[in-house]
Amino acid sequence: xxxxxxxxxxxxxxxxxxxASCWVTRDGKVYNVTRFLADHPGGDDLIMNFAGKDIGxxxxxxxxxxxxxxAYDMLEEFVIGRVGHGENIVSDDWExxxxxxxxxxxxxxxxxxxxxxxxxxxxxxQVWEANFTKSYYMQQVHQPRHLIESPRLFGPWYxxxxxxxxxxxxxxxxxxxxxxxxxxxxxxxxxxxxxLPPFTVDxxxxxxxxxxxxxxxxxxxxxxxCFLLGNVVWTILEYVFHRFLxxxxxxxPDHPAALTLHFLMHxxxxxxxxxRLRLVMPPLLFTVLSYPMTRLAHLLFxxxxxxxxxxxxxxxxxxxxxxxxxxxxTRLPAYVRDMKKYHLxxxxxxxxxxxxxxxxxxxxxxxxxxxx
Length: 372
Description:
It is built from 16 helices and four strands. It has a four-stranded mixed β-sheet with strand order 1-4-3-2. The longest helix is centred in the middle third of the chain and has 30 residues, at about 215-245. Helix content is about 50%, strand content about 5%. It is mainly alpha-helical. The radius of gyration is 27 Å and the shape is elongated. A hairpin with a 2-residue loop joins strand 2 and strand 3 (about 30). Helix 9 (about 170-190) runs antiparallel to helix 14 (about 305-330) and helix 13 runs antiparallel to helix 14. It has helices at about 10-15, 45-50, 55-60, 70-75, 105-115, 125-130, 135-140, 155-160, 170-190, 205-210, 215-245, 255-270, 285-300, 305-330, 335-350, 360-365, and strands at about 5-10, 25, 30, 80-85.
């Protein structure tokens, strides 16, 4: 069998249990015997009784019919892959502790045993050229691995650099942007929502107005509620993005392109949850994800309100990403320590529950609370 032969799970095989598509397994190999049903000497009923199942024992059972060596040779003509039996690290019995420190993965043994991704080589092309099914990918990508150094995602350095982000990059990039938008909101509430030129025409206009003392006290009474609304909006977006975009597992097509997109967006985080340089969102990725949300804000609200809401959302995004990093790596005060246990349980106990990172509010609302 080729090293790159396709890897299936037992669930994959079980889905092919009809005359139109009949798969069986034996000694870890997967066989598509659909074309052989009509030619089976004992009739197709004997095979259909074990469709989607393992036939190793029954083929050796003399009371049923002990098969000859030529029968086994013929069966090899229908091999299409093998059954992957990867490790299961995630468990409902997992308990979070304050001093949780996972053991480093043995890279050679991990790849030899699971035949999933070789962490010694760039990961992107391995996923893109995947020989495993979606089912096996989902099974494996949610089993955490741990390395001291960040593994490479891309070979070329000029691509790799965009995949690694230190936690302090997030506040450094986005807090000044949020501050600018809040000042712009204050100025617009003071002199008129449409009085400022577009950002692309004169980006410094709100700063000049603020320095000239054109911000009225009443503007704060209007901009601050918008900012607080943005805080609330972010908590909803945090939950929605995490549950319905990053964890769109069941709706994902069984295609290497779809698996690669999933891996880039969130799969790599579940695969390497303690990777310090892939715990916060690269600025480029957040720009892409936030763009439709900011456009929607400007469609729903006048510019002054929209900028206040976006500023509040961006500040809470910074809080979210910095807290996400802290949940994985730092000693924390009581509330944050509780959220750390909660979030790590999302990785190590049940990744279908516990989508809140900064709070559990929306998990309670949508009944996805994870008991820790």
